[in-house]
Every structure is written in structure tokens, then in C-alpha cells.
Amino acid sequence: MLGSPRFLIATMLLLVWFSLGCQRGSQTAASGPATLPDEEAIQSLVDGVLDSTLRNRQLSCPTNGAWQIMHGVLAYGRPFEILLEHENRRVQAVDWLLAGGNMPGWIVRRGEAGLKAELQAGTRRGQGHEDQWLAVLAQCDLASDHPIIVGDEHFTMGDLVSQAMFDVYEGKECSWTLIGLSAYLPLDTEWQNREGETWTLERVVAMEASQDLTTSACGGSHRLIGMQMALDRYRQAFPDRELSGGWAQAQSQIDWAVQRARQFQQPSGAFSVNYFERASNSVDAAAHLGATGHTLEFLSLALSDEKLQEPWVTRSVVYLCDLFEQTAELDLECGALYHAVHGLQLYRARRFGPRATVAVDQAVDDEPAVGAS
């Protein structure tokens, strides 16, 4: 696919589009839309992207590995389906995997305190960050006693949580750990790690808030998302309590990042490809998809309902939907692709309400689905 004439032509067109600006009505890449769509049109744009990506970028096993498939699960949740090539049937990826299914890169074993997921950083097949699988599965609303079968052994989601608690240490990248722990642990939980140190959720939050976002994965967006999810839990439990300690540190980092995202936004509506570090543009479509997608994902969690409807956020959504249209014929890297979809899913749910699950219609297209790598 990457060497096909269609891919080369589409890539050349994209380079022209990003460097010169492609006239589409009143919109250009340099200036963005002169007039934003109305509410109904925005919802239609977002729903169109969510539906077309689900239908036209289908993943399969074993061609696609766990890293790719779990990003699809992040975007579409527990109902996300994959094709089992050897059996020529479709299954819901999460339910099949946790019932004992095997896919390249899904390497889990009994750990000292529960169920341990092995790292395979840089492979784009296995877990790229500590507790990445836990974070994705936690966002599927699985109960702590939901079973996980590994070979002849039986575990639960709680075993993944217990191992993550045991493996926390000072200086660890806990972006994904925090998402999982804040989903399952009571806020006042105290525990001991493998060194016998006492930890709490607030301590993990404070550690994440103290890190340099500009040197963190994906511009720090994952750290921000983890902190925001933990803060959401805290505010739900204590809506009238003033933030202090690690919770206040996290809110300060989040407020800073929101301000920087808006400050560095491009006239097109795109967010900076250098995230929260500085204003920056690019002719690379994948860089824009990753940066604007990850940033929107964070903002869709962090902003109030009122701020989420402000024009600067709407411009980013329109830009991202347009970018999906422009790259419809290209193979795209799964991380950037599905985080952008997840950002649109979160935005859609916050602004217009949740949508019904859309089943994949295998008869939609006569041609094979466009890939994701």
C-alpha cells in the first residue's frame, strides 16, 4: 500500500494542501473557515468521521498486533470488532482477548502482585508504556472482577490493578497507570509498592504534575489526560472541597496546558505540532493528526461545557474532520489515528450527547479497507 501509485499521488496532494492551502469554499489551510458550521453541521461532520473510520479502517488479527488493536478499542470502546483471519469471523476485540484470545504483542503473565503486562516499547505490536493495557481496558467500564484468562490461568481486572500499584515508584511514567488506578481505587486508598513505600492516588497525581510535559510522550497529553481523569473522580467525590496538595498541582498544570494549546493554535484550527511547548506548523499530515487529535482528546476532558463550545475549539474540530477527509485514502499510524478518533468521540459525547454504537457493515465498500499501521 505504501508504495502504490494511489498512495504516492495522495501524499503529493497532501503536501501541496498543507504548504499552499487548498481552496475548499471559503476555507484554506492558512486561515481556517471564515464561518463556522452550525450545531447540526458540526455534529454531522463528527459523526461522519467516526462512522467512516470504523467502516473503512478495519483491523484484523494476526496482521495487526495488540498495540494497534488496543488503540482501536480506545477509540470505539468495548464493542470494537476485529477480523480473526484464520477463522474468517468478526469478534469484539476486548471480550475475545480477555476470554483467552491471542494476538501478537499481548504478553501478560503472573506477576509478584497480580497480572503483569510486559513492555515491548517501539515495536508497534506490544505494550509501549507501563500499564497502557490497563488504561485502555479501564476506559471500557469493565468491573474489577471481570475475568482475564491467560493460558490455563484465571485472573481479573483487579489483578492488573494490584500489579500496577505494586510497580509504582518515584519517577515512573505513570500517565497510563493513573488512568487505571483512578478508575478502580477508592480515593483514600493507601498501599505499599515493591520497595515498601506508602503510596496514594494523590501522591501519583503530584508526581505526574511535577514532570516536564514538553519532554513527555505525545507532548505531555497523556500525562494531562491521566491527571484530568483523576481530578474528575476527586471533584465528583468532593464537589465543594478546595483543591490542595497534588490535586491543586495537577489543576495548575492542566490550566497551563489549556492556555498554551489556545495560544499556539494555528489559524487553520490545527493545534501546534509541538503541543504545549511552542507554536509550530508542519507539512506532515500525520504530525497534525497526532498533535491536533491528542490535544483535542485532552481538551474534551478538561474544558467546561461552556468552553468546549467556544469558536477556537470548534475550529479545531472542523480542521480535524477535514484532515480525516483529506487522508481517507492513506495508510495511517494507529496511535495518531485512533487518539484523534477518541478525541472526536469525547467531544461528541460532551457537546451533543453519546451516540449509538455503529456496527461495521462489511458490504459498505467493494474495495478492501484502507489500512492503519
Fold and architecture overview:
- By secondary structure, the chain is mainly alpha-helical.
- It has a domain at 7-24 and 37-56 and 264-351.
- The chain is 48% helix and 8% strand.
- The protein contains 14 helices and 9 strands.
- The protein has helices at 5-20, 39-56, 66-76, 93-98, 132-138, 157-166, 175-184, 201-209, 221-237, 245-263, 285-302, 305-308, 311-326, 334-352, and strands at 60-61, 81-84, 89-92, 108-110, 115-117, 147-150, 153-156, 190-192, 198-200.
- The strands form 4 sheets. Strands 1-2-3 form a 3-stranded mixed beta sheet.
- A hairpin with a 4-residue loop joins strand 4 and strand 5 (115-117).
Key features?
globular, 373 residues, 9 strands, mainly alpha
Measured on Cα atoms, how large is the radius of gyration? 21 Å
Strand content: 5-15%
Unreliable sequence segments: 1-31, 362-369
Strand tally, please?
A: 9
Distance between the termini: 11 Å
General shape = globular
Order of helices and strands: HHEHEEHEEHEEHHEEHHHHHHH
**What's the helical proportion of residues?**
40-55%
Content-based structural category = mainly alpha
Number of helices: 14
Widest β-sheet, arrangement of strands: 1-2-3
User: Sheet with the most strands?
Assistant: 3 strands, mixed
Average residue pLDDT: 89
What's the arrangement of secondary structure elements?
Elements: H1 5-20, H2 39-56, E1 60-61, H3 66-76, E2 81-84, E3 89-92, H4 93-98, E4 108-110, E5 115-117, H5 132-138, E6 147-150, E7 153-156, H6 157-166, H7 175-184, E8 190-192, E9 198-200, H8 201-209, H9 221-237, H10 245-263, H11 285-302, H12 305-308, H13 311-326, H14 334-352
Parallel strand pairs: 1-2
Antiparallel strand pairs: 2-3, 4-5, 6-7, 8-9
